[in-house]
Amino acid sequence: MKKTAAYQTIYQELVQKILAGQWSCGDLLPTEAALAKEYGVSRITSRHALQLLADNGYIRRVQGKGSIVVNEKRTIPMIGLALTGFDSLFGMDFVRGVFCEAAERGYLVLMHTGYLTPESEGSCLRRLKAAGVEGIISVPLYDSLHYSSELELLSKEIPMVFADRRVVGVDVPLVCTDNTQSVKQLYRHLWSCGYRKIAFVSSNPDSTAVADRLRGYLQSAPPGEEQERRLLLTSLRSPLPGMDNAENCAYDSRQIEQFLLLNQDVEAVIAHTYKVAQLVRTTAEKLGLCIPRNLAIVCFDAPRGVEREPFAHISQNEYEIGAKSVQRLLDSIGGHSVPDTTYVSAVFVDGNSYLHEKDQKIKE
To answer: Residue 74 pLDDT > 60, yes or no?
Structure first.
């Protein structure tokens, strides 16, 4: 985890002292020079800490007088976290990263989850703002083409950061995995092992995360090789929020079965989620295909310690995505410029769902 900056440490300690009543409303805080000497930092660093206190409403800086405490009974500041849901596949470590980083910065987190429509998403965000949060981290709904007007309005009223995926058309910074490069990494790995007919299977690419993974796939054909567009299946329903039911899983299984029957030369599948990888494996086995002898499967993310034959996959650093989202949001709250996109590195985790190069004679 990235070390906390010196000015943030000073800010956090001063906040705690104000909340503990060491200084009352109207009292003067130590000067920039005094704080610099006490903490062994430069005056620029102590000035930055005092400015953050002023930005967050703890003090008022008056030229010729100093830094005056303005509210002795101020509550601990809060940020909001809005997401459709979370589980062991994706979300739990992200939430932990948000809460831990916020606590380190002296903030509480008010979380709202469970919304499944643009209208309920907008209502959720509006309630967070009404509760007094200073900014909001949002993992938006999948459908970037249809979103509540509340989302766009709130993005202009209160600092916001998107995590994992963004809503196209809403000017909010994003913290995420570089999905395009990650799929290219999966594709290159399969190619290096001798696979040539590599398919991509996903839900409709109406979220930026799915769209970026699809883009990575379409850009992955080596120089001189033409990407085969027929090896695309992007119409699954069950991976979408609130759509993981028996009817949609059955529909997806039929779609995958038809796809594999029509494209019997497919050697490998890049699945955009672990659940999609499971569906592909189950359907392929029903058709008599052996994984990985007849079909390789790689994907994004996987639960820890429960796979009978672990999928090779891209493991996203969820904790860091959560922590970085808090950092970017607090930078925005403090009036600092924030990059449009912050990428958090992911890693390839090997598994038993494809044949390694040394085993190509088995595949052949």
So the answer is: no
